[in-house]
Amino acid sequence: MIEAAKQTINAEKNAAMADIKTQIGTLSVNIAESILKQKLDNSEAQNELVQNYLNKSNLN
Are 39 and 45 in contact (CB under 8 A)? Predict the structure, then answer.
């Protein structure tokens, strides 16, 4: 009985940790999206970002 309770607690703890990780991931993506929207609010900034990525890329 005690062993079953320990297993239940452990399963619930693992589920809670997985949920927290999912929430953190979602929040991180939302924050990144908000930052990018602010930084890319005009086409000049968008073009500059793309050019910087292309310059850093090795396009052989």
Answer: yes
- Rounded to a whole number, what is the distance in angstroms from the first to the last CA of the chain? 64
φ and ψ at residue 5, rounded to 5 degrees = -65, -40
Identify the CA nearest to 33 among candidates 44, 42, 41, 21: 41
Domain boundary assignment for the chain: 2-56
CA 52 to CA 55: how far, in whole Å? 5
One-letter amino acid of 20? I
Q: Tokens in use for 58?
A: 């090795």
Residue range 24-59, pLDDT digits in tens: 999 999 998 888 888 778 888 888 888 888 888 766
Please give the Cα distance from 39 to 52 (Å, whole number). 14
